[in-house]
Structures are given as C-alpha cells and as structure tokens.
Amino acid sequence: MPRHLANLLLLSAGAIWGAGFVAQSTAMDNLGPYLFIGLRFLVASVVLAPFAWLESRRAVHPVAPAHLGGFALAGLALFSGMALQQVGLTITTVTNSGFLTGLYVVFVPFITLMVMRQRLHPVIWPATLMTFVGIWMLAGGSLADLNAGDVLTIGCAVMWAIQVILVGRFVGPSGRPLTLSFVQFSLAGILGLGLGLTVEGFDLAAVIATLPEILFTGVIATGLAFTLQVIGQRYTTAPQAAIFLSTESLFAALFGAVILSEQIPALGYAGGLLIFLAILLAELGPVLRPRPAA
C-alpha cells in the first residue's frame, strides 16, 4: 500500500475517533465507564471475528506465540488508555479530553527513541511540535484549570502512545492486522465487562437506553477505526502515525461544538490549521527530503 494511502486511513481513523468522543460522553448519562467499555469492545469483537477468521484461513503460517503476546500487550494498553479516558470524560469536557488525549503525539517519538532506540526522520520532530502547539491552541492556549478528569486523560495519552508503538512493532512482522485487532478488542472487552459487572453492576434498561452509543462506538469508532489504524501502521512509522491519528482532537472539538454546543475558542481555529500543516509536513517531508543512505 502506498504511504499516502496508509496515512489517509490513519487520518480517517482520527476523524472517526473524534466523533466517538461525543458518543462516549453521552453514554455516561446511563452507563458506568467500565461496562460501556466492555460492551463496545464486545460488539467490535463480534463484528471483526469473521474477518479475522478469514485472514487466519488465508495465512501460510500460524501466528507466532511472540506475536500473540505482543497483540495481548497492545490490548492491555488499549484497555488501560480507554478506561482512563472514559472515566476522565465523566469529569472533563469532550474538547479538553480530545486535546489531552492528543498528547500521545508528543509521547510516541520520545518513547520510540528512548526505549526502542529507533532513529526517526528529522521531519518528525518539527511536525510533532507543530501538532502539540496546534492542539494546545485548539484548547484555548491555557491548561491552568486542570481537574482530576484532565489528569486521568493525560495518563490515557501515555497508554495510547504505548499502544501505537506496540501496534507498529508487531503488525508488520506478523502480517496479521485483523487478528491483532481482534485480540485487542477481545481482551479489552473481557477486562471491561469483568470490571464493570464487579464494580458497577448491570442494568438492562440502561444498556438499552445507551444502545446507539454502544453500537456506534463498537462498530464504527472501534471495529472500523482501530482496524484502519492497524492496517495503516503497516506502511508507516509509529511517530508519523501518531501525528495523523492525533487529528481526533480537532474532530472532537468540532463535533463537540456542533452536537454538544461546546465552544471552540478563536485561537482554536488557528490551532486546527497548524495541525493540518503538520500533517502535510509529515506526509510530504520524507518525499521532498529523503533520509540519507547509510
């Protein structure tokens, strides 16, 4: 797959996740965060199961145990990030959550460099800085009033960074993007349901009332968007993927304003422009200025 098409898939995933923030927020009117996570990932697992099965039937070799272990680690990071984000959404706004979740675009390059010792294309650093500044401007240029939900969402950003890196590490060598997604979703669903039923209990009426949010986040924001992420990351680096995926903060602010009547500050429009300039830099920079040969 051409790199520009892979990046388009990642951008699409970011847009879908931005819309998902609204559904995640309104779902908390009826359901606890852990039960909601469990149900959305259960739906995603059921939707993706036949596609993962077809992928396994067509594969020449079975999945290596080391790769399955990597898939499970990605699923654990996915659940941890989603749990922190979902609990945080009960306290903070959709716009703030989208901004703070977008901090993973800053964490990914540093974790990649410091932990995995992977050299990065020089263009990634200014693009990362531009993205971070753009997200900060989108939030109005102030973080003075951080609350507990904001702090939880910062923890979510760390876990997202780890998840993005793990996906990038294992999806290429395994050649099984749909299987990776299925393992991620299944593990997150099991953990969410187990914790939700233990801590929050089960109310059928509340589940029925939240069914539109469960189906949208399960089928579209999880089953489709995370699979687009996994497929796209086969053909690009984790830091570059993080930049495209971080557009979810822009779309979260837009959908929050349109659907929930949350206000976008004037500075936010300039921040959105800066984010898209960063995307163009990440997309065109490696082409215009290729890395020197070793």
Automatic annotation (TrEMBL):
Its main location: membrane. It holds the Pfam family EamA. Residues 6-138, 148-281 form the EamA domain. It is a multi-pass membrane protein. It is found in: Cell membrane. Keywords: Cell membrane, Membrane, Transmembrane, Transmembrane helix. The chain crosses the membrane at residues 33-54, 66-85, 97-116, 123-139, 151-171, 178-198, 204-228, 240-260, 266-288. This is EamA family transporter. It comes from Hoeflea alexandrii. The lineage of its organism: Bacteria, Pseudomonadati, Pseudomonadota, Alphaproteobacteria, Hyphomicrobiales.
